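Good morning C.,

I know you're traveling, so I'll keep this short. The sequence:
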Amino acid sequence: MTKKYLPEAPEMLKLTEYYKELESSGETTNWESKYVTDFDGFLQANKSVLTCSSGSECREAITTAGGGKYLLPEWAMINLETTGDSSAGLGYWTSTPMNYSVVSYPDRAWFVYDGGYLYRDLVDNSDFFGVRPVIHIYESNILEKLEAPEYVNPEDVVNTE
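The tokens, ready to paste straight into the viewer:
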């Protein structure tokens, strides 16, 4: 019997030209923060690429805008095209929790988006993402987040209406 498992985000990223650039410069240790910063920077500079309506259209727009190095091989996107009623999945989860900035995002994980790239989101997101792995979120990470100054307890908010 062949074992099947959800891929790990680093395994997926190693399939990109972006990772090969990191590897050649010896910068793979902090791949998460680099990928987040660089790819988000690319998207901010090329906001029009996200006006696409399907995975293949997004891949083409990203490639045309010069962001092809961030994209995974096309075979990783099989069956992720959206349909008219959006019943097809827009992506699938990897087995990798997001370690980047854990205190800020203790409840996020990496997934493969239908546009052909890795992204991260809350693990409770049910918007068109496929199988979710079991992800361990340590209580200490949650407590650190709850104790952070930007956290507001909903019970402490006074309704002024």
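Safe travels,
E.
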